[in-house]
Design goal:
The chain has 313 residues and is mainly α. It contains 13 helices and three strands; from the N terminus they run H-H-H-H-H-H-H-E-E-E-H-H-H-H-H-H. Helices cover 56% and strands 4% of the residues. The longest helix is centred in the first third of the chain and has 21 residues. It starts with 12 loop residues before the first helix and ends with a helix.
């Protein structure tokens, strides 16, 4: 089988794209240290180069025997036990993320030893902080209306960034106040739109989006709901910059990123009395275990809920 291949081989697009999404999640959502991110990226790039050299084009083609063989090869090559354990951790964390996102149907690393620290999640915004963030976008200018709609949509639906930025006008059922989201793996789900999100979205699409479209210089107008200042499709980085600006304006000292709004959405639903199963459906998680880990309900809340709702509390 040979020695594990290095990082010089150009990675197939599917591996490269999945790694970019994972790094974004690991660094901003999981709040992993810079050293951990660097180590995981190096370990995964070497693994992907090895798999690509074996003819695999992307994560969806990886099987458990590929991963086990690679770990055995590292051990037989004389790598330290701690190094092999770290690689195993990186692989397990990576494929657990892809499974939750719907990129792969079955986790090929499921039987490998799970990494430590996977349950660490960022804290949610408080209700007051979320309200301050929503109200940070005021005014009737096109970009002010767009930003308010973006914030209300993110916090009001728990949509992933890719789902929200891929939304087209036909995906919104205005009378029913429902939006259809297209998730990873082409899975769709329907999410309700609260009145604040609906008002903000309608004001933006009726008053601001047509103005932004007049600035578009391309031959084909974008179908996406959310546009940038030049009338083109809003990018992930564009949304990140908007959120950072609005969070600063709201006086939020903590680091606020798009996925934190999704986490806040889920946490506030649970604190409001929603069942874990309902939250799972709204988030679009394939597994209930993902919702349990992801939402990270705090222990004092669980104690209080038990005392209030259980006959023997």
């Amino acid at each position: 089988m040979g020695r594990p291949k290095g990082t010089q081989t150009a990675l197939p697009r599917a591996f490269h794209s999945a790694l970019e999404e994972f790094v974004f999640n690991l660094s901003l959502v999981r709040a992993a240290s810079a050293n951990t991110v660097q180590a995981y990226v190096g370990d995964l790039r070497r693994l992907f180069a090895h798999l690509a050299g074996s003819g695999l084009a992307g994560p969806s083609q990886v099987r458990e025997d590929h991963l086990r063989a690679y770990l055995i090869e590292l051990h037989e090559a004389g790598r330290e036990a701690s190094t092999v354990a770290r690689v195993r951790s990186a692989v397990r964390t990576f494929f657990a993320f892809l499974t939750d996102e719907g990129v792969v149907v079955q986790d090929p690393s499921h039987a490998l030893k799970a990494p430590r620290g996977w349950k660490r999640v960022p804290p949610a915004l408080s209700v007051e902080e979320a309200r301050a963030l929503m109200e940070s976008a005021q005014g009737e200018k096109p970009l002010e209306l767009r930003d308010r709609a973006l914030l209300e949509m993110a916090y009001g639906t728990g949509a992933r960034v890719s789902e929200m930025l891929g939304l087209v006008l036909e995906d919104v059922a205005w009378d029913e106040r429902i939006a259809r989201l297209l998730g990873k793996g082409s899975r769709t789900r329907l999410v309700p739109l609260g009145r604040p999100a609906m008002r903000a979205l309608r004001a933006y699409t009726e008053k601001a989006r047509p103005v932004l479209l007049t600035r578009h210089r391309g031959s084909r107008l974008p179908r996406q709901v959310f546009l940038n200042a030049r009338g083109g499709r809003l990018s992930r980085m564009g949304f990140w910059k908007i959120l950072r600006k609005r969070a600063t304006g709201a006086g939020l000292g903590r680091r606020v990123h798009p996925h934190l709004l999704r986490h806040t959405y889920a946490t506030h639903l649970l604190h409001g009395g929603a069942s874990l199963r309902v939250v799972q459906e709204l988030l679009g998680h394939a597994r209930l275990a993902s919702t349990q880990i992801y939402t990270g309900v705090d222990e004092p809340y669980l104690q209080d809920a038990h005392q209030r709702y259980h006959p023997r509390g």
